[in-house]
Structure formats: structure tokens, C-alpha cells
TrEMBL record:
<dbReference type="InterPro" id="IPR044861">
    <property type="entry name" value="IPNS-like_FE2OG_OXY"/>
</dbReference>
<feature type="domain" description="Isopenicillin N synthase-like Fe(2+) 2OG dioxygenase">
    <location>
        <begin position="53"/>
        <end position="108"/>
    </location>
</feature>
<protein>
    <recommendedName>
        <fullName>Isopenicillin N synthase-like Fe(2+) 2OG dioxygenase domain-containing protein</fullName>
    </recommendedName>
</protein>
<dbReference type="InterPro" id="IPR050295">
    <property type="entry name" value="Plant_2OG-oxidoreductases"/>
</dbReference>
<dbReference type="InterPro" id="IPR027443">
    <property type="entry name" value="IPNS-like_sf"/>
</dbReference>
<dbReference type="Pfam" id="PF03171">
    <property type="entry name" value="2OG-FeII_Oxy"/>
</dbReference>
<keyword id="KW-0408">Iron</keyword>
<keyword id="KW-0479">Metal-binding</keyword>
<dbReference type="GO" id="GO:0046872">
    <property type="term" value="F:metal ion binding"/>
</dbReference>
Length: 109
């Protein structure tokens, strides 16, 4: 029940962020969201990786691009998030423990 409620809250937040981006671009957020982003349904995915037992440089999760509209990532004390530049170079993203990172996915290119 707790995870379900958490997932619904993140879904609502994702929709609000997407509509704010559309409005910032000067579009009718409600109309444009319903016609072009309705298929961009939020999905709750729970992944984790441990800082223990991994060799330096070993991937905990395979590299990937977020295909959705908005990714909301909860950050615990484990560092490991990286982003790739257009040139293909990877950069570590430092974060505070118990924080959230909001990233835009490929569908908003």
C-alpha cells in the first residue's frame, strides 16, 4: 500500500512537471499533454545498487537513456549516478543523501 501511494504521488508530480514544461514553452499545457503526452504514462521502477562488493568501474545497472518524459530518482547515500555528454563522455553526478533528482527523458528532446 505504501509503495502504491508513493508511486501515485510520483506519477502526479511527473505529470505536473511535464505540464509546467509545456506551459513554459508557450503551449496550451492541458491540450498538448492530452494529445501528445497521454501515452507517456509514468512508471514506478525500483532499482538499487550497493556500494559494497563492487569493483571500481563496475556497472551496477547497465547504461541506458530514460525513454519517458520525466524521471524522478530518489538518492540515498550511495553515489553512482552518471550522465553522458553528447560527445559520449560520462560524468559522475554528486547528490545529497535523501534527495531527489529530476531528469528529462528522451521523449522531450
Amino acid at each position: 500500500e505504501v509503495i502504491g501511494t508513493f508511486g501515485l504521488s510520483l506519477s502526479d508530480l511527473s505529470t505536473k512537471i511535464t505540464k509546467l514544461i509545456l506551459a513554459t514553452l508557450g503551449l496550451d499545457a492541458e491540450t498538448f499533454y492530452e494529445s501528445d503526452f497521454e501515452k507517456c504514462k509514468p512508471t514506478l521502477c525500483i532499482s538499487g545498487y550497493s556500494s559494497h562488493g563492487k569493483c571500481e568501474g563496475e556497472e551496477a545497472l547497465p547504461s541506458h537513456a530514460d525513454a519517458g518524459c520525466v524521471t524522478i530518482l530518489y538518492n540515498d547515500e550511495t553515489q553512482g549516478l552518471e550522465v553522458r555528454s553528447k560527445q559520449g563522455k560520462w560524468f559522475s553526478v554528486e547528490h545529497a543523501p535523501d534527495s531527489f533528482a529530476v531528469m528529462l527523458g528522451d521523449s522531450l528532446k
